[in-house]
Specification:
This protein has about 110 residues and is an alpha+beta fold. Helices cover about 20% and strands about 20% of the residues. The termini are far apart. The structure holds guanosine-5'-monophosphate (5GP) and zinc ion.
Length: about 110
C-alpha cells in the first residue's frame, strides 16, 4: 500500500516522532495533538479500518491495544482514552487502522 500515509510512516518513508516500534506495531505522535498525550498506535500491516479486521487479526489488534495501554503507563497516565474512528461519518480521515491514545487532560463523555 504505497499510497497509504500510515503505511509509509510505519515503513519510515515519511518522518514521524516515533514512540514505539516492533515487528508488527508502530506508535507515533499525532501531528495535530488534541491532548497533552496524543499518540497514534497502528498495526504495521495495512488494514483500512476496524470493520475490515478479519479472523486471524485478533492478536494483532490486541497487541495494538495493549501497546497503547503500556505507553499510557510509561507516561504515568492513570486515566486515558483509546479511540478508533471507523468510517468518514465517525471522523476517520486516514484509512489505515489506528487507535488514538489521548490523555493528560480531563475528558468529557460522550465525544462529539
Ligand atoms: P482519524 O481522523 O482518521 O481518526 O485520525 C487521523 C489522525 O492522523 C489525525 O489525528 C491527524 O492529526 C493525524 N495525522 C494526519 N496526517 C498525519 C501525519 O502526516 N503525521 C502524523 N504524525 N499524524 C497525522
Ligand atoms: Zn496503510
Amino acid at each position: 500500500m504505497n499510497d497509504c500515509l500510515f503505511c509509509r510512516i510505519a515503513a519510515g518513508k515519511i518522518p514521524s516522532k516515533k514512540v514505539y516500534e516492533d515487528e508488527s506495531v508502530y506508535a507515533f505522535e499525532d501531528i495535530a495533538p488534541k491532548a497533552p498525550t496524543h499518540v497514534l498506535v497502528i498495526p504495521k500491516r495495512h488494514i483500512a479500518r476496524l470493520a475490515d479486521v478479519s479472523a486471524g487479526d485478533e492478536a494483532l489488534i490486541g497487541a495494538v491495544a495493549a501497546r497503547a495501554a503500556a505507553i499510557a503507563k510509561d507516561r504515568g497516565l492513570a486515566d486515558f482514552r483509546l479511540v478508533s474512528n471507523n468510517g468518514a461519518g465517525a471522523g476517520q480521515s486516514v484509512f489505515h487502522v489506528h487507535f488514538h491514545l489521548l490523555g493528560g487532560r480531563p475528558m468529557t463523555w460522550p465525544p462529539g
